[in-house]
Amino acid sequence: MIVPIILSGGSGTRLWPLSRELYPKQFLPLAGERTMLQETALRVADFAGAEAPLVVCNEAHRFLVAEQLRQVGVEPAAIMLEPCGRNTAPALAVAALQATAEGDDPLLLVLPADHLIGRPEVMAAALAVAAPMAEQGMLLTFGVLPTGPETGYGYIKAGEELAGGGEVSEVIPAVCRVERFIEKPDGPTAQQYLAAGGYFWNSGMFLLRASVWLAELERLAPDILQACRRAWEQAARDLDFIRLGVAEFAACPADSIDYAVMEKTDAAAVVPLPEAGWSDVGSWSSLLAVADHDQQGNACRGDVLVMDSRNCYLHADRRLLAAVGVEDLVVVETADAVLVAHRGRDQEVKAVVERLRAQNREELRLHRVVHRPWGTYEGLVQDERFQVKRITVKPGASLSLQQHYHRAEHWIVVKGSARITCDDQVMLLSENQSTYIPLGASHRLENPGKITLELIEVQSGSYLGEDDIVRLEDKYGR
Q1: What's phi and psi for 42, nearest 5 deg?
Q2: pLDDT digits (tens, 9 = 90+) for 263-305
Q3: What is the CATH number of domain 2-279?
Q4: Where do the MannoseP isomerase/GMP-like beta-helix domain residues begin and end (predicted)?
Q5: CA–CA separation, 144 vs 433, rounded Å?
Q6: Is 369-473 in CATH node 3.30.1330.10?
């Protein structure tokens, strides 16, 4: 039995401004119509012997994960919520504890939610090779055969061959012991690795038996396992989610699977992935490499007009983007931010994100369109003492019963129908009708119809922040 563990805790800062803290890259359709999380979930469903996936994600992303999986018909075994980020070793620890809770001891296929695999049949072949070795107690990592001197990836140096040497299948070369893991190298060092052979890109994907992982974690990083066990023992069910103990998980040391165990264990082996079309899409250049190109090497998404330009990644989210006479640029336009960077320096986008964080800028955290379990809201206009939003509510969904202490609201329905509670009054409004919510009134907005409700909200008051919400009732547990 193989239980896929999908790790969805990443923030994707190098893909800003598309990727934001509260809407990171795994929830974006970067290389097709489906999001990267959806592609990952559908991919593992096709692997032989795979059970329903177990997803570990940031608590703030829980409704995004649940909704995106629902959209593609994937029902997870569980969605485990991290109250704070502690890297991949604790995430896998709590997943392993959950997977073994009923006495089972499955193989765990550990996959980041935000990677691409252009040829999943290669991954399936590698999995078939790795499974018998994982059953015997090996900790398998999947190494991608390098196609160039990439400096954005960590590397794995292969040691002695296992399984008798030579090719172990028609697709997968010999499985080898891991000699060492190597941090992201500089350009000349990466070129040396490529020339020498025997080096693989570190994909961050693993196959291991749950009990073996827990035993090695207890031997090599016992403080992590102890904290995770306490957090898991304090876990509580909330709707479709498993909430870990907050204080217990926060007390856990932060560490990666590689650092905590794989670099120290003598049971690590690497399974090669040749020509699998793998990418972690960790930068705009890596996205350009896997995207469709025109004859001049440009990858364009959205409303883009290109004239005499070459080797550019051009992404228009809201407006027309015109590029004339430029080369080797990344230009990404969103509703509230525009990035212009040279392709050779796109790894430095992370520094832009750190500067935004230092300035406490909202463009780091949110898009102008903000997703909620009931729908979305979008800021249209904001000035002193007023702002205008566009709100959409899914059929059958409702906002919390709430109050505001610093603002009043006007609601104008532009599509669908709205059931509105305002103190002890309940009214049904249709298109072109409006109502007023006084400051301090208890109110709720619901969509009783079969189509999406859209309305315009005009807020006015002395303070218009999202934290001026007192929830009196909320079916989403916020």
Answers
A1: -70, -35
A2: 999 999 999 998 889 999 989 988 988 899 999 999 999 999 9
A3: 3.90.550.10
A4: 302-356
A5: 58
A6: no
